[in-house]
């Protein structure tokens, strides 16, 4: 599974980018995941944007439990969806679904960190591995 | 307003304690806030625990928006509640209310970071200050 996480807005703080790097490392045995932090979403010109299944993260979206997120990943795997674009900080883009990680508004760095932590947790659940931290 | 935030469980990761320290610094102009990270809640022997208004953070609690959290703080100020104990990682303690910051399970460090960021955001809302980050 390939994930591209795009956080558009201000540059995120160091403690959040440190956290994201750590989760990226931990996730590397489950999936490929890249993280992009741009000022403007328009600057993100990458090839074949249409091939991605697009998920926007927004407080207005559907709220999921950690178990439901892991079920969703399993569904993607079963239906052959292999490229997922996660969009944080831009709610206007045309997407396949909108997911909420909290009803509270949060900074870009914090929202990105939560997404990475939850994706890691979801893979741990899928692989029946304990998650204590 | 005095806040004591007690996170009980494993030692939290460095990037989260860096984030918490930063928000503690930013919050210092609005309130007094201390952070404790203990293995066992029982080890927390501090004086006059009864004087605290106790809030447990749990995915099972009442979910609030950032604006509702700022309203809650205003209410505390109006009703003369000055000492608040925030309990993270221990859902069995007898408390005044249970608040959710997400329907997802999260690590102790991440939950603590979100609480600090949200408290900072709530004070910015109360003081009509912009919050871009």
Automatic annotation (TrEMBL), chains A, B:
Listed GO MF terms: methyltransferase activity
Matching InterPro entries: Alpha/beta_knot_MTases (IPR029028), RlmH-like (IPR003742), tRNA_m1G_MTases_N (IPR029026)
GO term, biological process aspect, one: rRNA processing
Keywords noted in UniProt: Methyltransferase, rRNA processing, S-adenosyl-L-methionine, Transferase
CDD domains: RlmH-like (cd18081)
Cross-referenced Pfam families: SPOUT_MTase (PF02590)
Signal sequence bounds: none
Coiled coil: none
Similarity-based family: Belongs to the RNA methyltransferase RlmH family.
PANTHER family per the UniProt record, alphabetical: METHYLTRANSFERASE (PTHR33603), RIBOSOMAL RNA LARGE SUBUNIT METHYLTRANSFERASE H (PTHR33603:SF1)
Name listed for the protein in its UniProt record: 23S rRNA (Pseudouridine1915-N3)-methyltransferase
């Amino acid at each position: 599974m390939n994930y591209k996480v795009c956080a558009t807005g201000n540059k995120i703080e160091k403690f959040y980018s440190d956290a994201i790097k750590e989760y990226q490392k931990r996730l590397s045995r489950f999936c490929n995941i890249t993280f992009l932090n741009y000022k403007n979403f328009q600057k993100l010109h990458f090839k074949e944007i249409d091939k991605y299944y697009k998920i926007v993260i927004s407080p207005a979206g559907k709220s999921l439990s950690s178990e439901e997120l892991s079920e969703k990943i399993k569904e993607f795997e079963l239906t052959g969806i292999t490229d997922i674009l996660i969009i944080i900080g831009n709610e206007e883009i045309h997407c396949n679904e909108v997911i909420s990680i909290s009803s509270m508004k949060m900074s870009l760095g914090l929202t990105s960190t939560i997404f990475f932590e939850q994706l890691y947790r979801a893979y741990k659940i899928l692989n029946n591995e304990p998650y204590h931290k």
